[in-house]
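Working notes for the structural subgroup meeting. M.R. asked for a predicted model of this chain before we commit to crystallization trials. I am recording the input and output together here so anyone reviewing the notebook later can reproduce the run.

Input as submitted:
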Amino acid sequence: MQLKTVFFTVLALILATPLWAVSLLRDPDIEHNLKQLATPVLNAAGLPAGRIKVLVVDENTLNAFVIDRSHIFIHAGLLLKLQTAQELQAVIAHEAAHIANGHLARRSGNARAANTVAAFGLALAAAAAASGSTDLGAALGIGVQSAAQRSFFSHTRAEEASADQSAVRYMARAKVDPQGAVDVMRLFAGQELLSANRQDPYARTHPLSRDRLRAMEAAAGGHSGRFGPDPAAAYWFARAQSKLAAFYRPPKWTLKRPDDNAHPDVTRLRKAIAWHRSGQSQKALSTLRGLIAQTPEDPFLHELHGQFLLERRQFSAARSAYAQAVKLAPRNALIVGQYGHALLVSAAPKDALPHLERAAQLERRDARILRDLGSAYAQLGRMGMAALLTAERYALQGRPKDATIHAKRALDQLKTGSPGWQRAQDVLLESQAATQTSRRQK
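Returned structure, recorded in token form:
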């Protein structure tokens, strides 16, 4: 799939006009690689690795943060800046520590509407950009006042010290060299001497100090030489970083980079993306097909193949590529949803419907799936369901007024008491409550 820009909003924080914008870069391959790196660390922290996602934020700055117990967010700029898998795992371990140590509990006051979100079965929601191109889109904001935003994302020095020590323990338990945590800390060395507007966001939300660095060095030093490099982790890191860079940086920049001799397939993948983005489609397809021939069981290569073909309007071939990706990864919502999208734009809404419904069941955080599912319902004449999906999408995007309009439309057309009618009723009630909250804040 193309590196898909998505809009992110926390329903529990809808207070007024959005004031702080965040967007996500959703890609099944990158998220899979990040999961491989995160799993041993999260297990070591005693957290449910299968339920925590590591997601990439479309910000070319250095930061990482958590807002709930189910997601760790890393800015694209930080992911591209890090040098090793151990450094990335250190970032994940640090953010996991904020979850495991209960540092999110004090923020409950900033999410006082969280109980209303339970009706949707969501703590947060990510909405996909309307464009299917590789261009990066705009963002939707988190509706919080600036003071509340700073409070919500900031940690105290005591919390940071606690998270530092926990991160080292988690890394050691996971047999990951804690020196990666020291290297990350040094990346931000000197930030406390800069004025606030010149600091990286990480320094503003994670208070730094030379004492923290010395304490981290001492803690990591106790494990010096215990853990050797992990070739698998190095591969997942190289693949995640290279694919992100290939979509995030200009193609000329990507093609000028030296080859990754340790991972030649990563180099070929990176070049294929750059050639595709620069209009050299045949070279891109030939390279990608060579990679598929080498590892035919890799669903993410088939998914990327489908994207290349879909963007060349080779619909039949694209559908075949996506079908193979779904066969290999039937529970990956992004892949299943993209297959449904390919069927939909190929004028096959009836065929697309079950795949889009399946994708929505797997992950209701992706509003592009909801948009496509609503379109499929509309094309099949099921206007009540189309209105419901539109209402849910607007609700997840933090647009309660629009959600209210379409929820009422759905209620008028769906059978009273049916599951769809009840969902529309939930959207209407919560959207009206959010609208009233917004008015009180003005």
